[in-house]
Structures are given as C-alpha cells and as structure tokens.
TrEMBL record:
<protein>
    <submittedName>
        <fullName>DUF4426 domain-containing protein</fullName>
    </submittedName>
</protein>
<dbReference type="InterPro" id="IPR025218">
    <property type="entry name" value="DUF4426"/>
</dbReference>
<dbReference type="Pfam" id="PF14467">
    <property type="entry name" value="DUF4426"/>
</dbReference>
<feature type="domain" description="DUF4426">
    <location>
        <begin position="28"/>
        <end position="142"/>
    </location>
</feature>
<keyword id="KW-0732">Signal</keyword>
<feature type="signal peptide">
    <location>
        <begin position="1"/>
        <end position="22"/>
    </location>
</feature>
Amino acid sequence: MKIVKYITLVLLICASTFAVQAEQKFTKGSWDIHYIAFPSTFVKPETASQYNLQRSRYMAVVNISVLDKDSQEAQFVNVSGKAKNLLGQTKQLTFTRVTEGKAVYYLAQLQYRNEEIFNFEIDIQQGNRSETIKFNKKFYAD
C-alpha cells in the first residue's frame, strides 16, 4: 500500500511540474504573450491542410497569441519576427493571423535540420505600442 501512495505522489508531482513548464508566456504590460514552436508533424494532416501548413519532419510551426492580461481577450496585433541559428543564419518569419471564434493566434513556419537550435526574436505591434519577446528552441527531426 505504501508503494501505491508513493507512485501516486510521484505522478502528481510530475504532472504539476509539466503543467508549470508547459505554459510558455511573457507578460509585457497589459499583455500576456503566449508562444510555442513545434514540429509540423504534430499537426494532423486535415488541420495542416485547413491552415495551409506544410507538414514535414524538417518544418516547424511557430504559434503566437496575445491576450489582455486582465480580461484574457485575444488581441488583434501585427506579428513579425526572425529566427537565428547558432551559425548566425537568420530566417525571417511570415505570420498569418488565424481566428477561431474568440481565439486569435498567429502562425509562421520555419525549416530546420535535426538538432538545430534557433533563437527567436518576435515583434508584436498594436498602434503605437510595440513589444519584443525572445526565446530559443531546439528542433529534432522525428
């Protein structure tokens, strides 16, 4: 019985740790800026087709969403950015706005090689307001 309690406790700790790490966001003033970059093979073929995303083991999807910090309402903004690998090669990111009901997010794609690391610099603008977020990600070919 002790071992069952121990395993349950370990699983709960692991689950809560994952939940904390799973949220990737920056809070800038009144905005919560959520970001994620992942291999495009994680996207179902029908979803990729719907949003004109190329599925490939060497293609990533970058997803940005901007919410009002207090109301959590999606914000209509302009998103641009670039990704630079460790060799200093820079790739410009072209974002497309996707609206689903009240949700608004911005998608771009990036080609990569196995185990390639990119440093992202994403610019978000709304009227005269401008914010920049920076993050990095290592991609693996699956």
